[in-house]
Amino acid sequence: MAVYLEEVGGLKCYRSPLFKAFPEVVHGFFTRRGGVSSAPYSQLNLSFSVGDLPEKVAANRRLVQQALGLDSLAGATQVHGRREAVITNAPQALAPEIPEVDILLTSRPGLGLLIKQADCQAVMFYDPARRVVANIHCGWRGQIQNILSEAVGCLKERFGSTPSDLWAAIGPSLGPCCAQFRNFRQEFPPHLWTYQVRPKYFDLWGLSRDQLAAAGLKPEHIEITGLCTRCRGDEFFSYRREGLTGRQGAVIALRQ
Ligand SMILES: [Zn+2]
Fold this sequence. Notes:
With 256 residues, this protein is of the alpha+beta class. The chain contains 6 helices and 14 strands. It has a single domain, classed as CNF1/YfiH-like putative cysteine hydrolases, CATH 3.60.140.
């Protein structure tokens, strides 16, 4: 079964069938549709750091929180690093974002983990054995640092997770159709050049899948949603296509 689009609380989001078997998990890969922001951030921009009006971003975040029926939403200033934050307290509505973190984890029900992206991947994890969720900001810079392996390590160390118990979904992001890297010889280490699908285009989805499998996830526990943000301009923000633009959100939580 493939990823499917649903309307929740007036907003459209894609859902992974992987998590359907777990009614205790709430998640959504949101599109750019349904919020209050104006061009070039129209409509559901969830980032405070792209030049949009803060009150509009706050309103958009409330819409997402309400749509999923969550008590709170935690986000971070994402920096393509390898640091993690375990979130235990519900943040206030307009609390500052957690600084310089790309791996978010929580076992607290009702608390949504928000990753913002416009071509980068959000990779969501659920561990039904330990009842913990994680959400990872995974751009190509993160992939070079193998941030997904780091995230699995965090789940093991902080929550006692066993990798073969984990489920992971790779969200809408830059597909092999559009992931062009003119300077890949400078940017990518040689062992990643095998992900080139035609000259200078890379399969970053396949790379994440392989990094998750190498970290111990079962292949049948990994899903690629397969939606390219650059190709689908009416649905998603794309930095590659638009430059100055908004960021859509991917949210996972344990149901309250
Ligand atoms: Zn594409």
